[in-house]
Amino acid sequence: MNELSSRISEWIRERVMEAGAKGVVLGMSGGLDSSVTAVLCKNAFPDATLGLILPCFSSNEDVEHAKMVAKKFGIETKEIELSSVFKTLFGVLEEREYDVDLKREGKEEMDIAVANLKPRLRMICLYYFANKLNYLVVGTGNKSELSIGYFTKYGDGAADILPLGDLLKTEERSLAEELDIPKEIIAKVPSADLWKGQTDESEIGMSYDVLDKIILALESGAFSGCDPGLVAIVKRMMEASRHKRELIPVFKKV
């Protein structure tokens, strides 16, 4: 392992030991974030890493990619199909049957509150097994997404530790190559799979390369080569999502 991956895996071990836990559990979606996180967890806890594969109207490719990573690195997994649970919960909330075809129509027809049920259902599964096994839930978010709030509050944003939270997406790709993550996963278009055809970069409004450059510029104050309009957009996203990154406000009586 290289120095960075070793440091992250050691950090994972330390956080788990401090909590008096026995291991780690994380969701494996078949994407880059979860694949890198899973391998780092496996290196930290060779015999106490559980990857949950939680398809919910998910693509077959994503499920196969998750299984590919698990097989290559010897990660224990459990697959739980959540599509029927999703449909039942939607029916209870909306008092009507969920129309799977709406997912094919794009964002205009897929209310974000409905789409966010998927990561929140997955969160329930992760914390169930964390409680059952005395494990910590490991989040897979990176610095690029955390900075602008590109995650579902109490969904994929719910975690006990965030090993990639200080790595930009571009840095994560380099780490993935060093960890020997399958190239088809590194090269695939990032997507939270909230609806058919959804991609992370289309939702964000710019590529990760551009986003990361702007985040670094905001940190350094050197904006040479940055589009002022996109810089303003990133600033607005950071401010609007501040509540996602902070502790819940508590009223003080004095």
Write out key terms for the chains shown.
254 residues, four-stranded parallel sheet, globular, alpha/beta, Rossmann fold
Describe the protein.
It is built from 13 helices and 4 strands. The protein is α/β, with parallel strands linked by helices. It has a single domain, classed as 3-Layer(aba) Sandwich (Rossmann fold), CATH 3.40.50.620. It has a 4-stranded parallel sheet with strand order 3-2-1-4, sandwiched between helices. Strand 2 (49-53), helix 3 (60-73) and strand 3 form a beta-alpha-beta unit. Helix 1 packs across helix 2 (32-44), helix 2 runs parallel beside helix 3 and helix 2 (32-44) packs across helix 8. It is globular and about 50 Å long. The relative contact order is 0.14. Residues 104-109 have low confidence and may be disordered.
Main sheet summary = 4 strands, parallel
CATH class equals: Alpha Beta
Q: Assign the structural class, choosing from mainly alpha, mainly beta, alpha/beta, alpha+beta, or little secondary structure.
A: alpha/beta
Average pLDDT for all residues: 93
Task: Give me the side-by-side strand order of the main sheet.
Answer: 3-2-1-4
Q: Any idea what the radius of gyration is?
A: 18 Å
Large-scale geometry: globular
User: CATH H level: which superfamily?
Assistant: HUPs
